[in-house]
Amino acid sequence: MRTEEIRDHLQSLDSSLRLRIVLESLLVENPEDLARAVRALKSSPRLKIDFLSSVTAADYLDFLETVYHFYSVELRIGPVVLRARTRRDDPKIPSLCGLFRSAELQEREAYDMFGIRFEGHPDLRRLFMWDNFEGWPLRKDYVQEDSDVLESQDLAWLEKNSIHVSQELKTRALDLQARGLRADAQRPAAEGPANSGAP
Amino acid sequence: MKNKTDTPLTEDFDTQTLQINVGPQHPATHGVFRMDLTLDGETVVRLKPVMGYLHRNHEQIAENMTYAASMPYTDRLDYFNSMSNNFGYALAVEKLAGIEVPERADYIRVILAELTRIVNHISVIGFLLNDLGAFFTPLTYAFREREKILDLFEEIAGSRMMCNYFRFGGVKRDLPPGLLERIRTMMDVFPRFLDEFEALLTDNDILCLRCQNVGVLGRELALNAGLSGPMLRASGLGYDIRKVDRYSIYGRFDFKVPVGSKGDVYDRYYVRVLEMRESLKILDQALRQIPSSGDIISRKAAPFLKAPRNFKPPVGEAYGRVESPKGELGFYVVSDGSPQPWRYHVRAPSLINLTVLEDLCIGHKLADAMVILGSIDIVLGEVDH
Predict the structure, then answer these.
(1) Order of strands across the sheet that contains A51-59
(2) Which of A23, B74, B260, B303 matches a 20 to 30 Å C-alpha distance to B42?
(3) Please, are residues B375 and B362 in contact by the beta-carbon 8 Å criterion?
(4) What is the pTM of this model?
(5) Range with lowest mean pLDDT among A149-153, B79-83, B171-175, B275-279
(6) What number of other Cβ atoms are within 10 A of residue B51's Cβ?
């Protein structure tokens, strides 16, 4: 089925769904409708979507976006791609865990990397990074910490474990703290999309 | 660590559940994987997987370099099957940039992908027996056969495991002379080894007792939890991306998709054995059909080998997926028209197959939890990406 047909089909099942075609996928205009759209996909006799393959997110500077790839194992249809957009400063997307268990770890991963809160997820914790890690590593404005530079918190830990630190490193760490700075690494890549072509 | 909140299990004894950590450094976790377990006696009542010890933000690394430069990094995802990882990434980018692959290159790709499947499945079975307590003897036999295939890989790509052999629109270089005959020799010997291996294992009492009815995974849960590959097929669903998508030239080959009936550890073992036999069938057909000469990289993509920064796929996105030996390996790539991908995501089958680990292990003994984990077949390079 072509994307237009899928859109019309979904809207005939649930007339209040607002869907827009972006590339070859369907953008759910109001993220609150996401679960309803997925329920329509699941119940549709023509699509019989029963497999949520991939859940991921992307940062487009103005907004964050989640992308879902659905398949029908029974009818061998796919991929049907849904996407939803959310604000960058307070990103919230309804969780699909209740409908597809495969979202469980993948939503945790997207939360870990982008900070999108999946509402209704039973156990939304960081997946790869440690619990008190700060920042969202895959957002485009994330600046990596320079792990070679000591910071005052590191000094405290080293002293607690009675590891000797030279006076020079101590002064530099305290200087950073006094100026309220973090030891940031140099960014390797250019900023921003090359031709503002984020889809 | 004692868990004080639990009530005694029997009237007579003051028993409590016990919380233990298995991993991250534990030989049975197949890498730096940790299981946070709660045991009632020896029975698992709660299990939480903890991962990320090998996390290196593979996706960010790829977003900070050219498309071609991430090809060697994909080798490090599932380091048992670098060829399959290359295949998935190449397919996704070819879809994005609209590149066709020459016929000979397609055959080479399929041959290598199927050899990889054999490498993976024979190792998994070896490790599974390790987990069962048959320490290293079966694994050594399995590795002996695996090594023969890795020797071929070394000849083809220059490296046993980190092959980095696929390129967008084809492969890096043509096969060395006489290689197809050497694959043929390997294929003549391998079924005999497999028969011998199976004679020792398939009807083995210990294997049957330890594996049958352990870690049973129903069809509905398997599908709902996004499982793929031998895990899904052992639960009775004959879903194979090689058959469904017919990517590359898989539509030309005649092979069956083995399925299990119960979805227990034994079925997962046996499905893998059967898949190796099917892979041999594909190899046999591919070796007979492969054109003896021809391009190994598409004319459109060849100039970018020397100038990777000129490779700028048009704005858009693509999702390419392959049937890797572990399951559905998908690459989601978004291009903004620059030489670097704007977004690069790996749908890692090992990670998603772990979703059901707790469901499979609850109610089984601790020793069975190890076997169940072994039968899921994870590689931490891929889980943690």
Answers:
(1) A19-22, A25-28, A77-86, A64-72, A51-59
(2) B260
(3) no
(4) 0.87
(5) A149-153
(6) 24
**pLDDT more than 90, % of chain B:** 33
B231 contacts chain A (CB < 8 A): no
Tell me the sheet residues that pair with A81: A69
The shortest C-alpha distance from B241 to chain A (Å) reads: 10
Nearest to B315 among A56, A101, A199 (CB): A199
Smallest Cα–Cα separation from B286: which of B148, B184, B175, B150? B184
Contact A50 B224 (CB under 8 A): yes
Over chain B, what is the mean pLDDT? 88
Q: State the angle between helix axes of A167-178 and A152-160 in degrees (0 to 180), rounded to the nearest 10.
A: 140
pLDDT tens digits, B165-218? 999 988 988 889 889 999 999 888 899 999 988 888 888 888 888 888 888 988
Structure tokens at B107: 């055959």
Nearest CA in chain B to A78: B245
Of A150-154, B3-7, B314-318, where does mean pLDDT reach its minimum?
A: B3-7
Task: For residues A18 and A105, state if they share a domain.
Answer: yes
Residue B44 contacts residue B215 (beta carbons within 8 Å): no
- Domain shared by A102 and A24, yes or no: yes
The CA-atom distances, in angstroms, between B65 and each of A120, B58, B181, B341 are: 36, 11, 38, 8
Q: Is residue A199 part of a domain?
A: no
- Residue ending a domain, among A63, A84, A119, is A119
A104 and A41 both lie in a single domain: yes
pLDDT at residue A163, rounded to an integer: 84
Is B342 in CB contact (< 8 Å) with chain A?
yes
Q: Are residues A87 and A160 in the same domain?
A: no
CA atoms within 13 A on the CB side of B331: 30
Write out the two tokens for B369: 């939890």
Q: Does B315 touch chain A (CB under 8 A)?
A: yes
Q: How many angstroms separate the Cα of A75 from the Cα of each of A10, A48, A79, B233?
A: 17, 7, 12, 16
- Predicted pLDDT at B3: 52
CATH code of the domain covering residue A28: 3.30.460.80
Residues A112 and A153 in one domain: no
The single-letter code of the amino acid at A148 is: D
Rg (C-alpha) for chain A, rounded Å, is 22
pLDDT at B111 over 50: yes
Task: Specify if A80 maps to a domain.
Answer: yes
- Work out the pLDDT band at B41, boundaries 50, 70, 90: confident
pLDDT of residue B345: 93
In a domain, A127, yes or no: no
Q: Which pLDDT value is given to residue A30?
A: 87
For chain A, say whether B141 makes contact (Cβ under 8 Å). no
Residues of the domain holding A175:
145-183
Domain final residue pick, A102, A119, A136: A119
Both A167 and A70 in one domain: the answer is no
Are A128 and B55 within 8 A, CB to CB? yes
Same domain, A79 and A18: yes
Cα gap B383→B23, rounded to integer Å: 15
Interface contact B354-A105, CB threshold 8 A: yes
The total domain count for chain A is 2
Counting every residue, how long is chain B?
A: 385
Residue A8 domain-assigned? yes
Residues A76 and A149 in one domain: no
B380 near B360, Cβ under 8 Å?
Answer: no
